[in-house]
Amino acid sequence: MTRIILALTLCCGLAACPSGEPDEPAEPTPAPVDFGTDVSGGLFGVGPEDPFPNAFLGAEDGRLDLDPAWFGGLPTEAIAWRQGFSRNQPIVATIEGLSGDGLPDGSDGDASDDAVFMVDLVTGDRVPVIAELDENVVPGRSPALLIQPVRPLTAPGRAAVVVTTDALPRPERFEALVAGTPPADYGGAALHYRALMEDLAGAGVSSDGVALAWDFPVDMGNAQLESGLAQRTLPTEWDFYDVRDLGESNALHNETWRYARAKLTVQDFLRDDMFLDVAPDGTISQTGTTDIDVFAIIPSSVADAPAGSVPVLLYGHGATAHPSYDLNTPNWRHPAVVAAERNGMIVLATTWRGLEFNDLDDLLTLDQNPERLIGVANRLVQAMVNTRVLVDVIEDGALFQDEVFQGAQGQALVDNSSLSYLGVSVGSVMGTALLAQEGVDVDAAVMTVGGGPLGFVIPRAAQVADLLEAFAEAIPEPTSRRRAFALFQLFTDAVDGINYPESIAGSRLYVENMGDDTVWNIATENLARAGGLTLLAPSHSAPWGIPVESGPLGPGDPILFQYDPQLGPSPTGNNPPDTTGAHGALQWSGLFDLVTAFLDPSGPGVASTPCGEDPCAADNDGAPPSIVEIIAVDSTTVTVELSWDWSTALTASMFSIAGLTVTDVVVAGPLATLTTSAQEANASYELVIAATAVDALGQEIPEEGRSGSFEGFFGLANLVINELTATVVGASASQECNRIELRAVEAGSLGGMEIRGRGTQFGGSYKFFTFPAVEVTVDDLIVLHLDGADCNEDGSGNESTSKDEYPASSYPQNHDGAWDFWTSASENVTAHDNAIWLKTELGGDLIDAVLIAGTSVCSGFVTANSTEARADWISDRGGWTTPAGATPSFYDEDFCLNAVRDASATGTTPSGTTLGRVDETDTNSRVDWTDANNSSWGALNPGQTALAN
Predict the structure, then answer these.
(1) Which of 30, 35, 44, 490 is in the most buried spot, having the most CB atoms within 10 Å?
(2) How far apart are CA 405 and CA 311, in angstroms?
(3) Confidence band (pLDDT; 50, 70, 90) for 843?
(4) Going by DSSP bridges, is the β-strand pair 238-245/129-133 parallel, antiparallel, or unpaired?
């Protein structure tokens, strides 16, 4: 097919082509000379696969026909469905007499004077390349010329490689070919090459300057993936088999509240768990089903979040890594974990089959099984299908009804309408391809230390140098090994992000580490150019084709950001360099600030430099460590929170507190927990940190940040819920201006206490209010005014200095005998079945509770699921019983019989009747309450006497 198309091109190149107007009679064109059909010698006389690729490596139907012998024996039949080569094709050619001097290195976007370049024959544009001689040389033989286009070619299309006479004189074999006197073993290519020279001349390439040229067809190469994605189905069952909760397991990251691991069943397209089952048209067939692991990380910051409010962050790991290691290693901070904790997001992940930790056993046997290199590519296609299924599961949302995703109060946490992505290395490459697939929409995505194409990246990657050595043992001949990696690109196109540059749009942040020893800067900048990224200034370089602008940039734009870990210059050559660690340098404070801000669900996609006027580097990596907060958590314990992780080498002697003795320190990430001598309640203390106390990166704390004050521990108050109403109507019928009154039975602080009510879904709850650290005494009353968004018509603030800070004379709804607080949201006490409870801070203890029913008639009563869930939770903690002290299941009629009843019959104004305690007795049951309490807001209820007496 290709030869037929090229023959037509030749006819139009050598004779007059039809047009809309008559031409002058032309001289008869001589019939083309019949040069035969043999192309076995190839362009260089050594065989058809040299150079690779070229236009004569296809069958008559246009599909590829590759001899495994030229690729070290790697199987080629599974790629025979393709009708072209990669848009990002690595090219291998053995050219006698070629010097490596003066070859382009891809650093200049102007290829007009380059000794080697490519031409996109669809657009007619010159394409700059990296051209270099293989550093692996067999004595007595010419090294292979390695060529890599530095931007993707048009697909479907056709491209040409040009070596000019600046690089070497035109070889006699090529001169004879284009002159019409081809060698017998390449005669079938003569007309093709004459047409190619015409095409190049039409693109402005002077024939006299061409020493060598050849061409090849180009296609997208993603039929296998498209086929697999079209066959995916939504899993409806899962099995969480490894769940670890804070306080119950030490095997947790220090910022994680819950870690969970589940199995999902998906379609399997692999034979022997290694190779795709590929049909002649490139589609793949299911071979059965397989289980994939899904990992969930729920950070402490969301354990008490409102129901349905927590976004999802999808994570993609790097080569030979694993989600459980990246996301759940205690005392080690990962960008995904930090961003999730700070932004209040749940992290989900699965593995990139082919390049995950558990694939190492297979990869380390490449010396005996080189075909497993193709297995890597095939497994990555399966991995992309798996991850796309996980996106479907996230979008469907049924998974999030599992109790694993319930918060500390039993509330269903997840808001699956908000999804972001973070990928590292291979997770960046694969993530770029994933986001190009139909139906995958994210609010923002961060791609760190990625690039492409994979056929260029992997043979140079320090991270997998040992695997490359094993592969070299299997294919010791260097040029065959280079062709094997060029063949590998044909198998990885479907999952290689640089194959989809037109889809890089929206809020995307790509992070480049200068001097990267694994994904070289050349590869990252290839992807940045292809995807139309803008480089955030100040930057370390200004690569061609990438505009540079000062921030903030975004939202809605793809952005490139540079950081220099100062571990050495960019590698050179074409073999893996020594490992420097530059690829994995992702543990610095400015990056966490940058990534957190970019993924912030409240305003995603905005990037500003975290390092001031100079580019970010190891010696300028954002704000220095600083003390965030010092808190006395009990009378002999003080926590010191740093903006970054503490060094584990801290000692008690590095902390001094005037008036106290520090006897011990325990470090857990950013928290240093000090054991002190007994503190005096409310006394002011000054803590000073020695200059030798550094963070986990060895950074000193600036002198001005090494001290801070705190107050000696003052315990939490002990409160009871004293009075409430569920039926007060405001200025309009839609305003429900209800109130909850608390009474202090022991003096102390309100700090961090939360008052909650049942929510609208199973397990859900509303957090009405979190109290500030106001100190109260015995018999103090606290009135919480609900629906402050509608009912706070006078604009009262929350009282923190005195009970009449916002006096009733100016704020008529307030009570001078109580501390008045107003909610800012519209949640309210419902006038039917409900559970109201008071608790300490995140994940803390129950303080008091009351169960209410809206009716006095319990026959046929039906309780809401969320109320039942809350009632069970409360009763499990001894917060509510029957009058006889029993703890039945508080469902339906049983709930009603044991609740404070008739909440719907209380007054519609604040002065009407309320639900209230009858005296000081507290049995945690309905007998402590009456539904006919004469309202007494800001004063003790009728029947109560002062405890302070």
Answers:
(1) 490
(2) 12
(3) low
(4) unpaired
Rg, Å, the chain Cα set = 36
The answer for residues whose C-beta is within 8 angstroms of residue 786's C-beta and 6 or more apart is 736, 737, 738, 739, 740, 768, 823, 827, 828, 829
Q: Provide the pLDDT confidence category of residue 33 given band limits of 50, 70 and 90.
A: low
Sign, Cα dihedral of 862, 864, 867, 868: positive
- Residue 589 pLDDT level (bands cut at 50, 70, 90): confident
Three-class DSSP category at 836: strand
Alpha carbon distance 178, 195 (integer Å): 9
Q: What letter represents residue 721's amino acid?
A: I
Distance CA 175, CA 938 (A): 103
Closest CA to 621 of 600, 593, 640: 593
CB neighbourhood size of 885 (10 A): 9
| DSSP reduced 3-state for 937 | coil
What is the CA angle 347-429-300, rounded to 5?
Answer: 15
Taking the CA of residue 271 as centre, how many other CA atoms within 13 Å lie in the half-sphere pointing to its CB? 9
* Res 2: pLDDT: 36
Nearest of 159, 89, 85 to residue 126 by alpha carbon: 159
Among candidates 190, 198, 197, 191, which has minimal Cα distance to 211?
A: 197
For 185-204, write each residue's pLDDT tens digit: 999 999 999 999 999 999 99
Q: Is the pLDDT of residue 32 over 80?
A: no
What's the DSSP call for residue 780?
-
SS3 of residue 432 by DSSP: helix
Spatial distance between the Cα atoms of 511 and 686, rounded to a whole number of angstroms: 41
Region 537-564: mean pLDDT is: 97
Sign of CA dihedral 132, 136, 139, 145: negative
In the block, residue with structure tokens 């004459």: 194
**8 A C-beta contact, residue 561 and residue 607:** yes
DSSP structure class, residue 499: G
Secondary structure of residue 821 in the 3-state scheme = strand
Give the pLDDT band (50/70/90) at residue 8: very low
First-to-last alpha carbon distance for the chain, in angstroms, is 102
Q: Which residues pair with 634 in a beta bridge?
A: 637
CA distance linking residue 647 with residue 650, whole number of Å: 6
pLDDT of residue 29: 45
**Given the DSSP bridges, would you call strands 129-133 and 684-689 parallel, antiparallel or unpaired?**
unpaired
Q: Who contacts 147 (Cβ-Cβ below 8 Å, separation ≥6)?
A: 90, 91, 92, 93, 116, 118, 129, 130, 131, 161
How many of the other CB atoms lie within 10 Å of CB of 176? 14
pLDDT exceeds cutoff 80 at 733: no
* Alpha-carbon gap, residue 70 to 799, rounded angstroms: 81
> Which amino acid, residue 752?
G
Determine the Cα–Cα distance for residues 809 and 110; give it in Å rounded to an integer. 78
Q: CA 291: distance to chain centroid?
A: 22
Return the DSSP state at 456.
H
CA dist., res. 298 & res. 243, Å (int): 11
Q: Which helix (H) or strand (E) holds 314?
A: strand 310-316
- Are the CB atoms for 313 and 347 separated by under 8 Å? yes
Measured CA to CA, the distance from residue 395 to residue 505 in angstroms comes to: 21
What is the spatial distance between Cα 518 and Cα 509, in angstroms, rounded to a whole number?
19
pLDDT for 900-943, tens place per residue?
999 999 999 999 999 999 999 999 999 999 999 999 999 999 99
Any idea what DSSP says for residue 16? P
| DSSP three-state, residue 652 | helix
Burial of residue 184 (CB within 10 Å: 0-12, 13-18, 19+) is: exposed
Question: What per-residue string of b and e applies to 257-275 under the rule 16 or more CB within 10 Å gives b?
Answer: bbbbbbbbbbbbbbeeebb
Separation between Cα atoms, residue 422 and residue 316, nearest integer Å:
6
Cα 731 → chain centroid: 47
> Which tokens is 382 given?
């399966």
